[in-house]
Amino acid sequence: MAPMSSTATPQPPAPPSAEWAGYPGYAGYPPYPPPKQDRVSRFIQSKWQSSPLWVAPTAMLVCMAGAVGYTLASNPAAADAGSAPTCLLKYTTGFVCPGCGGTRAAWFLLHGDIPAAARHHALFVFAVPFLLYMYVAWAAKRVFGWKIPQLTLTPTVLGIFIAAWGLFSIARNLPWAPFTSLYV
Asked: Which residues contact residue 103 at a Cβ distance below 8 angstroms, ignoring those fewer than 6 apart?
């Protein structure tokens, strides 16, 4: 058996086609052809680009107002385990899910009872001021052009928050003291 020779010279990549020449980071052949937008995506993109700047913040405000209205009207703090709507995970398994107690915490926050809100979902109570500030800063910049400092959430910060939420979710399902006080 003869040894293989390594004298072959590498061939340069083929010249880029016109459709791929403007892509940043293009080096040789494309990994896949560019996706073609369907009619729905083109319609949504055209409406988004032609809509006034106030539409997105107003739509988010309407959604938040709907959630607040539902929470105030339903009084989740007085509901029992079988009342609709119920958490299917808790109803079928008995486990407290990561979001369990969030609606009750929102109800207590809306009534100014921060300790009771934290008792039902401490991380929700912790996150609400940050989320509200982020919304106000984004909406003020988008609609009025105000330069309110933005909160920058790095992947590390988000990872720490998600890990804390996961640990909180596990701790509130442990069946011995002091973790039983976290059960809602």
From this structure: 71, 74, 76
d(C-alpha 164, C-alpha 172), whole Å: 12
Please report, in tens digits, the pLDDT of each residue of the chain (184 residues total): 555 555 556 555 555 555 555 555 555 555 667 778 889 988 988 888 888 889 889 999 999 999 999 888 888 877 765 666 667 777 787 777 788 888 889 999 999 999 999 888 888 999 999 999 999 999 999 899 999 998 888 999 999 999 998 888 888 878 888 877 776 7
For residues 84 and 74, what is the distance between their CA atoms, to the nearest angstrom?
Answer: 10
Q: Determine contact, residues 60/135, Cβ cutoff 8 Å.
A: yes
Distance CA 120, CA 99 (A): 10
Give the separation between CA 61 and CA 181, rounded to whole angstroms: 35
The values of phi and psi at residue 31, to 5°, are -70, -30
Q: Which helix (H) or strand (E) holds 72?
A: helix 55-74
Give 134's contacts (C-beta < 8 A, 6+ positions apart).
Answer: 150, 151
90-to-86, 123, 149, 180 alpha-carbon distances in Å: 8, 19, 40, 15
